[in-house]
Fold this sequence. Notes:
The N terminus is likely disordered. Helix 13 crosses helix 14 and helix 17 packs across helix 18. The chain is 28% helix and 22% strand. A 9-stranded mixed sheet has the order 6-5-16-15-17-18-19-20-23, with helices on both faces. A hairpin with a 5-residue loop joins strand 5 and strand 6. It is built from 42 helices and 62 strands. By secondary structure, the chain is α/β, with parallel strands linked by helices.
Amino acid sequence: MTTVPKQQKPRPTNSRDERFRSDVHTEAVQAALAKYKERKMPMPSKRRSVLVHSSVETYTPPDTSSASEDEGSLRRPGRLASTSLQSHSNVEPWLDRVIQGSSTSSSASSTSSHPGGRPAATLAGSAAHAHIDLHSAPPDVTTGLVEHSHCERPQLASVRGVPRGYSGSILETAGGVPVNSRVSSKIQQLLNTLKRPKRPPLKEFFVDDFEELLEVQQPDPNQPKPEGSQMVVLKGEPLALGTPWPPSLLAALQRWGTTQPKAPCLTALDTTGKAVYTLTYGKLWSRSLKLAYTLLNKLTSKNEPLLKPGDRVALVFPNSDPVMFMVAFYGCLLAELVPVPIEVPLTRKDAGSQQVGFLLGSCGVTLALTTDACQKGLPKAQTGEVATFKGWPPLAWLVVDGKHLTKPPKDWHPLAQDMGAETAYIEYKTSKEGSTVGVTVSHASLLAQCRALTQACGYSEAETLTNVLDFKRDAGLWHGVLTSVMNRMHVISIPYALMKVNPLSWIQKVCSYKARAALVKSRDMHWSLLAQRGQRDVSLSSLRMLIVADGANPWSISSCDAFLNVFQSRGLRPEVICPCASSPEALTVAIRRPPDLGGPPPRKAVLSMNGLSYGVIRVDTEEKLSVLTVQDVGQVMPGANVCVVKVEGTPYLCKTDEVGEICVNSSATGAGYYGLLGITKNIFETIPVTAGGVPVSDGPFTRTGLLGFVGPDNLVFVVGKLDGLMVVGVRRHNADDIVATALAVEPMKFVYRGRIAVFSVTVLHDDRIVLVAEQRPDASEEDSFQWMSRVLQAIDSIHQVGVYCLALVPANTLPKAPLGGIHISETKQRFLEGMLHPCNVLMCPHTCVTNLPKPRQKQPEVGPASMIVGNLVAGKRIAQASGRELAHLEDSDQARKFLFLPDVLQWRAHTTPDHPLFLLLNAKGTVTSTATCIQLHKKAERVAAALMEKARVSAGDHVALVYPPGVDLIAAFYGCLYCGCVPVTVRPPHPQNLATTLPTVKMIVEAIMRLLKSKEAAAAVDVRTWPTILDTDDIPKKKVASIFRPPSPDVLAYLDFSVSTTGILAGVKMSHAATSALCRSIKLQCELYPSRQIAICLDPYCGLGFALWCLCSVYSGHQSVLVPPLELESNVSLWLSAVSQYKARVTFCSYSVMEMCTKGLGAQTGVLRMKGVNLSCVRTCMVVAEERPRIALTQSFSKLFKDLGLPARAVSTTFGCRVNVAICLQGTAGPDPTTVYVDMRALRHDRVRLVERGSPHSLPLTESGKILPGVKVIIAHTETKGPLGDSHLGEIWVSSPHNATGYYTVYGEESLHADHFSARLSFGDTQTIWARTGYLGFLRRTELTDASGERHDALYVVGSLDETLELRGMRYHPIDIETSVIRAHRSIAECAVFTWTNLLVVVVELDGLEQDALDLVALVTNVVLEEHHLVVGVVVIVDPGVIPINSRGEKQRMHLRDGFLADQLDPIYVAYNM
């Protein structure tokens, strides 16, 4: 026989099979799915390369294609009337195929009382009420579609970007281009799905650290509550006294071994089902003695015996060798050693093997016993020794085959006497979290367990038992190794490998050995059902007991019923089937007895799933869809007392109709967890109390980990296990029940049965359900996605709970438990670490997460006047600060002389003609061009002459300079000033990506009329469409007749164009006065003189980079060493080598340069030191930025290059923006920049709350350098424009002589933006004219003093207002979300977020294998929920380098958004979270 056929053939229908078909669960699922027909979920998009599956032909099914613990999923035999089936016209034909042999014999009639069409009707009703007005729910992810969200400063739209709340009905990109793309239609689908009414919103909140309120679920007033009376403790029958029990198990072994040496004890089978060896009692006794003698006398280390009585010894035996195991087990008992049976490790890193190693280590195991064959198969180290397994202690291995043992001398006898409370053996158990603990069982308990089982099962001497279970632990060990010896029984042990080849083997053995008892699990019955066709000659009439060891499983009942249906005709009597329940801590808890042993008739309970989720037993409600049918697991064990207690808190007795944890008090339970006293006390020494607090008995009870209740006839019912319990909100769900529902959704086509794991992870203070299944290799993307969405809907209908994440992984990739089944805790671990590598993921955070904080309602604003008064009353100063006064700092005569930069250059050319101003370096570090004062002056004159003669420009014309970074650019700039033109520097289009860079050049150039360029730039341009073009590479040497002199300092000197991160091109006008004031401020702050050298590694096209490159040297006369950042791509160390070589005290760079150095030179500091790079000359190294300082980057840069002498405090940042390119600059004097920690949650509410470093939700902010001389800064409220107090968050306003004078736009919309440049406070000092920077920040007075002796005011920049995302009424800075996301997994290289139609879209760059891409979806969603209380709408995974970055190293999020919507990113995977 082969394993279970994948697709079962349709069977001829006869009356009996008809009954199986209507498995209630499948029907329930059908009915549930019927109501979801129309819903369309957006399917994730996947790059083709990620789709590659191995071809079906070469594919072998997983070795456990069905072989798993949970196999029996033949689910739930509560019944729906067969009529209801016909009334559902839309039930698909697959229903017939789903699960054949699943049926119940007796309950077919029990629940079929209601008329057929009922379920569909009630469902339709519930769907009809579903159109709830969206506004009544809390503003969720979709409300943005209904109302325009309030935009920050709507009148500025044309410069500041499209207003943030535009309606989602017209999808446009930021440029206003309508989008027709796959992406946007999917997003539309997603929004439609999300518009569906959610679960009712929760009412109340609890305060999470006094800041944001998380909703806490209030009990539903209509939820079922237990109404029964308090239960009484259930007492089992007393242990029989009259029987002559042997005093101990070893005494029984000695008796049978000496008096009945020929009696068979154990027969082992090979994989063909042949009996390979029968161990007799005589052999068992003699070989165990031999082993005991060897263990005690023949093993030494350093002349000491290796073992002493009471030591623990590991037993490592394969499932196919029960004989050797039994000898080893009894040999240890005889030698007074404690056996610890464990699984055979197959590889160095098996699932869970590390935890087993931890158990061995904590038990102090130093020796492992194994067989010759097994030892040969273990992984070996190079030395030939057995390899050390991950996490295991060092072990000696002893082979226990006969030839390795020594025969004891005649007079030697084992010491073993009656040891009572001493530990006999340790059984391992894996907990829900994956840790492995050892349950210790004493000799007394062992004996009591054997006696109780003998009495309960009526075992008699020399009976035959077939055992299919694992003989190393649990029922397989208790019945098949221990109790059997006490009664001199003969055990036929059926290995797992034989069952996989021939699932009928155990039935054939029962038949051929005329076995009286058989020990199986429900999956063994299930397999034999599938394989029994055509087997006519088997008979089960000899069986008096068929013990079903996992009777506590919710699906064991359908296996039992279906098995009985088929085998009743082959001699199986109904009363023979005896389900039992056990737990590692309490051993056997209950077992059903046949009537001849005094058992009551079996019972079934059809329970309401909704009731169970509240822990209440309600029998068969009218809501037929969601019921759980369970069977009893029989009576309490002889000599035991049982009660049911509340799961959490004090162990109060439950009411009779309440589900709780079953507890046992008996002499036959485990004694504790080895070495863990604390948990042992909780579990093994529970004292149940009555409602009045009175203990119910003197003796302690052991908690079994089983959830259940006591039913009629004092029968025990189990409805789930504590390990599989998931508490979502206030309701409890059982992992097994959810697996069963998933399996009822036509699983055979897409996923492997029994390869499904369900567990919960905690996200945002609640359990979230995760379902992982193995996908068949031949299932298509669409099919799998379809199946996933149906599973979600089925679980939603039947359990009324949302699944947070559903993942499909390739076949055979889930970690396996030792005997088939899935290693759940290991799967969960991999999921959380991003190591599961799924091939399909569907996340549903929108539907599941119902405890998000309430969206913030904006309070009516306090007026600006009251704000000031409030601050005065509170003793807070108004937040304003200024740099040093310019008047005190220098003689105003020089300032007057230096009002116009062209004059300065002529003056320098005249007074210090040969003083070098500029040195330009290439990638090799050699100087490619220099310019002294006179050279620069002459070059400028030639350009001016050419402009006037060839291009015929007149004063005031605009000229674009398209040059690579270099001296020519500077000369062309001054040439323009010499003839009165207005220069505009433009970055040449990049030859590699013309398509993206040319339009920017063209936009700027269209705003301007003339164009100067060099040869390099010419290659990239189509000349015909451009204005007059003048090539300056070879112009004749001509002097200009007269140099233009501006009539007033307010005349426009140059235009500064820059693309903001929101994708808007803005040019600002700089007058001559502002230009010289800017140079003057920088000169004073950095103490720049002609004798100084500074190194600049910046782009020279806009902002402070342009000023430092082209203006400052001419003004202050210092020498600038120019390092074009582009050259770093071929030589990363260029900038730092230059700094070292020219001993620059002051150097400037950008974040992208700093990042290149940190990443590219991290490992090379030693090499650089050898080359003589020394950075100890640097006083200040300033990062030129228009954003919040990137602390992590600057700190790692400082740490890294400390080795090269970089002073710890040298690195700082500058801050500038469009209205003023240099507001702060650290400079050479003044206190070091300070860092504060603010609460990120308060920041979302536009508040600053300072917290301690390392406190939760803390965000470090560092000040952006010192405010420049002549600059005044104030913090204003973004809406009321009133001044704010110290440490309050608001917009930074700036007033200074070097503010720009306005935006330069071709469309004449200056009036719109005048506000940015000429704002006045609404209260207080209403006279001063300020410029609004568009950045949020705050001022804080520090304890430090600055140069003037005043207390120093620090300015902290939080972020650009345009970039912020308004979500749930709160203001988020993208960088904060991105920082969290980048931390979520090591292969996330970069991340950018933006919003689209109120959905948060997260784009991550994957630096790793494409197969691992889908691991990121859940991790990204989790971290954003946990840390920011936001639900991610779309996760886009792209290749490294896809997120566009500008020359300052800032992310261009709007370009990215447009690229995403226009389908241009070629993403690896796009997940649409439901």
